[in-house]
Specification:
214 residues; alpha/beta; Rossmann fold; 8 helices; binds S-adenosylmethionine
Length: 214
């Protein structure tokens, strides 16, 4: 962690950080009612900054376990004087299951979740059936779940799990992976993968209307 990241984390925690011990009241935290989007594992926060600048009328929440990334995000948010981003420091499994209200989000993004390439580590992968169920419950009807990876076997694993989640419906017209949506910026990990010649898979699902959920 650089000194600048440490100092930004300490200085701006009360403005941008959420100490989540109980269910979070998003209207109170953001001081308004607005469409809300969540990014899980935001890394250095580039996508959150990009999205928050593009849509001042929407709120953005990030979950991250890595302090240097949170510090970097806070430094950027303060420099830009952005009001529509907050970050929870913690494990997304825990935050999704216990702390976020159901049906509170218009979209959830996960860009390049850690792939844990070794077979014996696959159980550490974040995207598992229980995780997808918890995440889907946080979406409003028609809310978007957008996950991107450059690891083929993780992409297939995620597709299988998302397709089996009753609350979700695949946005790809013929099923399978979606085309990269125009305007989706390239993240730091995506650039790294592309430099190594990796392909990239977009998975885009929406939350079904409640009467269609069995
Ligand atoms: C490969 S990086 C991708 C970062 C960024 N999304 C990008 O595309 O550049 C994965 C990120 O997920 C975070 N992460 C891993 N497990 C997590 C968890 N259980 N809860 C929240 N964040 C997590 C890591 O700290 C890391 O920043």
């Amino acid at each position: 962690m650089t000194q600048a990241q440490r100092s930004a984390l300490d200085r701006h925690w009360t403005r941008y950080g959420i100490e989540a011990t109980d269910i979070v009241d998003l209207d109170r935290i953001f001081g308004r009612r607005a469409p809300r989007y969540l990014e899980i594992g935001f890394g250095m926060g580039d996508m959150l900054i990009h999205m928050a600048l593009a849509h001042a009328e929407w709120d953005y929440l990030g979950i991250e376990v890595h302090d240097p990334g949170i510090g970097r995000l806070f430094g950027q948010l303060a420099n830009l004087d952005l009001h529509n981003v907050r970050a929870v420091r913690g494990d997304a499994n825990d935050v999704l299951a216990r702390l976020l209200p159901d049906e509170s989000l218009e979209g959830i993004f996960m860009f390049f979740p850690d792939p844990w390439p070794k077979k014996r580590h696959h159980k550490r992968r974040l995207v598992q059936p229980q995780f997808v169920s918890s995440a889907s419950a946080k979406l409003r009807t028609n809310g978007l779940c957008h996950i991107v990876t450059d690891v083929e076997d993780y992409a297939k694993h995620m597709l299988n799990i998302l397709e089996q989640e009753n609350m979700l419906q695949n946005l790809a017209p013929t099923g399978g992976f979606s085309r990269r949506p125009p305007g989706r910026p390239t993240t730091k990990f995506e650039r790294r993968g592309l430099d190594r010649g990796h392909s990239v898979w977009d998975l885009m699902f929406v939350r079904r209307e409640s009467h269609l959920i069995k």
